[in-house]
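Memo to structure team: turn this sequence into structure tokens by end of day. - J.P.
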Amino acid sequence: MARGRSPSQKTRILVWGRAAGRCQYHGCGKRLDGDLVTGDLAKNHAYLAHIIASDPGGERGHPVRSHQLADDPENLMLMCDPHHREIDDRAKIDRYTVEVLREMKRANEERTERLLENPNATPAHILRIAAAIGDNETAVPLRDCIEALRPEFTPADRRPIDIKIRDIAQKDSDPDYYPVVINALRKKIQREIDGRFADDDLEHLAVFGFAPMPVLIELGRLLSDLSAVSVYGRHREPTPGWVWPNDRDPLEFTCIPGTTDTKKVALKISVTADITDDRVTQALPDDRVSIWEIRSSRLGASELRNKDDLSRFRELVGKTFDAIKDQHGMGVELSVFPAAPAACAVEFGRAWQHKVHPPFLIYDQVPDQGFVVRHEIRTSTQTDD
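Reply from structure team:
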């Protein structure tokens, strides 16, 4: 059977435009339009490669669809010469299936569109942290992260920085869970992030995560010295995702001071739920404790809707740390009781300043036990190992 017709000029222009003049083989991106710019088309480095061959007897050919799709831009990829030969190598035809090449084309064109839709967007590296919370497994889809970045940022790398701590044998209710998880977190941050900002390898960091409160607060502490950080929160309504809805009146955050005549202070973070004083005194019995509180004007897991709300929360946390130090001294015995969204937990840790603010213990709610101390943020060393 004869080969299908050659791609029309219109089809060629569409394929070239969607590929931005670069090879669409995964990981290549070689520029192919150099000779087109000079007008010397005879030395054009680009090849239009069929996914389903235009010849029914060719690689990935089909008795009917080869002719139907011969001039379809959805069936054509822009390729450099080596990769055009690679995908049509008969010895590798099982590797380069129709499905594989279609996904390669889709991913390339989607990434090109993202990069070009806002040429002034800041490149941001995506940091995802996923940990089991109780019996619930967590995950942060990459597409949701990319959607949340627009239009201010664009992905700086197709591979996110992932901190996956879901496979640790212990549950977050086990005493050994937090030392193992936090040690893994610190090592990952040191390996993947520390120094890369100084070397200009990382321009901006976008943080997405699910994890227990103490882990997220520690993550924030590790990122506290990096100003170019944006923290995102997951929203369930109206559509599940990580884009800030910005659809409600701003939240107001208030610091309610405690008494000043003691060295033992408890700081309640009441954003998603109310924390009664008796729950604090049950965790800190037999001692006189000054109970401070950072409280949201509306309580609930879905109330943090605006990006600016998170900025105001972080600013107030910093001022609260300063006020506690001023009134109780750097040697204050500070304990933190959080009931807040994940994004607030990260920003709480970022607001704390090493050697400026007092150390503190982090308590977390444990079923049938109440609040239990889980981690300590110290002014001494960054790591324990």
